Amino acid sequence: MQYRIITISFIAFLLSVNQVMASTADFVFTGGKVYTVNETQPWAEAVAVKGNKIIFVGSSSDAQKHISDNTRVIKLDGKMLLPGFVEGHTHPVVGALATVGVDLQFDSIEEVLNAVKTYADANPEMKIIRGFGWRYPLFPSTGPTKEQLDKIIPDRPVFLMAVDAHSAWTNTMALEKAGITKNTPDPQPGFSHYERDSVTGEATGYLVEVPALLAVLVKLQPQTKERIAEEFEKLLPQFPAAGITSVFDAGMTGVGEDNGLEIYRDLERKGQLPMRVVASFYHNNPDVDPLPILKKLNKTYNTELVKANVLKINVDGGDAHYTGVFLQPYADNPKTAGVPVFTPEQLNKMVIAADAAGFDCHFHAFGDRAVRMALDAVEAAIKTNPKRDRRHTLGHVAYLNDEDVSRFAELNVIAQMSVQWAMPDASLLDVSRVRTGKAIFDTEFQRHRSIVDAGGKLSFGTDWPAAAHYSTTKPLEAIEVAMTRKMLRGEKDGGMDVLPPLNELLTLEQSLKSSTIIPAYQIHLDDKVGSIEVGKLADLIVLDKNLFDIKTEEINQVKVLMTLMNGKVTHLDERFK
Fold first, then answer.
1. pLDDT of residue 492
2. Rounded to an integer, what distance in angstroms lies between the CA atom of residue 5 and that of residue 9?
3. Both 56 and 112 in a single domain?
4. What is the domain range of residue 150?
5. 343 closest CA partner among 281, 286, 280
6. Which of 135, 274, 284, 419 stands 20 to 30 A from 433 (CA)?
7. What are the DSSP E strand ranges found in 254-334?
8. In a domain, 484, yes or no
């Protein structure tokens, strides 16, 4: 009997030890302002993490029971703890292809040319001079010319990507080496072309849209997986440094999906991938059936951190080069309203098929007609196919007609928007507003609040490296612009204070949801990340200031001190060590 009592007591002791061990945390964040983005418990003081899971959210006093000698206690001292940011649209691997070379984000042609010349002179061994970031307001609607570059670098190919990564500027030698002549056919007439001299018909050096610029780049500098991986690893730390823990990769054009996904997977195997990646197959060719390709990618790449399960459809381009598709002609070029990449019939058929196969679609839809075409295609799929948990998304939605505002909620389509574009910079005021006309621009551009007020879901994504005026990976900058529609840091680049429409400002709560739980929903990760809740994965960030306690105009200056992804530290600021 005594033996039995001892045995029962010993078992009870072991169980209590196991319970204590199970509740003992690896990390405890305490004494802070924890904004959870969980509507049932929006605020807390402390969070405990064990392994890759959150095991406690509550008060600092109650968190003490999760602390042992092996627990790393992070004293927040009033600092802010948030869920890790989820990027609803970005191009991390493409950034390694596009942003190579000298930074050209300047406000005058002289500054751009000086930067290119200085860079070339400092690198005499380079066989090709690369650069990224020149801005459209510096040039007429026909774009920059090869002669401008020939004057400073006549003896080496020059290839300079625009700030939106949708066009490029080359010199004569680059065109010659790529074999581009007056007789070279345009890659996709009406959408992607080589700008021509109106008199001679010769290519001017302005390459419009991705197919044209890639046709030249691959001839000048063949892109290998190894080259891109090397550049990508240099860029990678900026994502956790910005507080990003999950991304939707919206296309790997120029890199190739297999190359890009293998780069991600190789980093995951080495324990060096600091973010979850949901990737897509980027489709812009009406002559190709994308589904067999996507199905193969989906089967091949399906690990814990890397998945490929979205069809990215390029419906149109952008307003700067008249490739955005609108319901009315361009104000400064009435001969065109933009030509869609796919006809409505082709688009509907493709989306119905993808939806039937269980895949979500993510549309590049810039102009108001492109937005309507994409919504129509989703509506056709809903009417045709059985009910399912579909989460189709329209990317950019730069221009939105009144008649389509409510359709996002009605069709449960996510509006993914690069909200940091909504500032009164010269690119918008001197190019976009001129292209589309004041009446359309001032009422339709970047209608964030209208979508939210109509019950729609709004997801933020910077679209890095692509941009309207300046290229950024930082969600905090996007959040500030969404709340102000002003230039950052008090700048007055475009001479206007607030970008119209003036009734489209978001609140901080709305902006944080659009940076976390809604993009997580978009990519089917909302049950795992996007809010701070017990049982969810430990994707967390520490900010040096509480966003609710500072002026809105100071948000862009807030520092990410620490980033945790899957329970592991992926970024740690020197001041927080």
1. 65
2. 6
3. no
4. 92-220
5. 286
6. 284
7. 276-283, 306-314
8. no
